[in-house]
Amino acid sequence: MALPLEEESDLKPLLNRIGDARCVLIGEASHGTHEYYAWRAALSRRLIAEHGFSFVAVEGDWPDCWEVNRSVTTGVRDPREVLDGYRRWPTWMWANQETVNFCRWLRDHNAGRPGGVGFYGLDVYSLWESLRAVIDHLAVHRPEYLETAMAAYQCYEPHYQDPQSYAFAPDDCTDEVLALLTRLRRTTSADDLNALRRTTSADDLNALQNTEVAAGADRYYRAMLGGGPQSWNIRDIHMADTLDRLLEHHGDDSRAIVWAHNTHVGDARATTMADAGMVNLGQLVRERHGRDRTVIVGFAGGTGEVIAAPRWGEPMEIMPVPAPRPGSLEALLCGEAPHHSLYIFADDPNAGWLTSTLGHRAIGVVYDPARDYRNSVPTRLGDRYDALCWFHRTTALQPLHLEAAQQGELETLPTGV
Length: 417
Description:
This protein is an alpha/beta fold.
């Protein structure tokens, strides 16, 4: 089943498999591997240039990615300058040369095209940044709502932008942020609501989504206290809802490219995540848009190097990726597959390695090579993805800058399951 994967032209069989799919979800087996980012960008360039895809939505914060979106659609700022300004840990996820190269290409592609192909963040973390953006918008465009927004911001202010402080506080700010969201959603008729959701105003889209982020972040941080799958599910449902909102904003004929970790884009029902009560973005997109309109591309790698941190919030390091465990997907491919190869599962859907359950490596932003065995998700590969890109040896991502240790966000599962 192995197809060559050495040049961009080798992606043609995958483009044929994608066909007229509306949503293409492209994964990664770590947040710090050059090959995953570079080939994901290569596939995205072809989808945009040759098949008219409308936007890229990534596992990143909405406010930061909105600045990238402005740089690639207006050309006012160099995407490198914007990405180098990322300061929320782990910065290397998007402040890297591979993302710069893609965003500069996207800026050039958009030049002279009305609207242009957007670049958006799907994640839920930016509570304080999103609230400040909403306040700035309302002060100019809807001052009658400013008091409601300030009440929400002042409720969160005593926690000094510390998610852990807010998560463990006895009182929450849920009522305040929901009051703000309700006011922004409120319209006089169903027709007005439809117009708001399909508005061509980038400012309105940004304000509404930042309010959705604040409400989602509030639920997410409070759910962290209870443990279990709830916080993970809140986050991935938020990402799926954001994707739907972007598709609606871009119109009935819009098509989306999604970049996120395999644990988000690979259908959770084909893994032990489902046994733990978890849903994820890939599952939800298939359920909402249909499996025939959704294509999921997974990534996997053997040995090499990766950028990660030894503990949550600590500085990045270049770490070795050891040889895969016997019996895992990666061990099978190391023994049988070419160095770089592409697999289209529809070519042989009943192949034993696609229907059996194999451990599949999942490296998060926190990684300990000595305990690599913990970073494995038991997977029925043919049900989890529609295709797989394999790299026998991988190299580290190229960060734009170093970073100091910081508190960062609360850790979310699964860093490895």
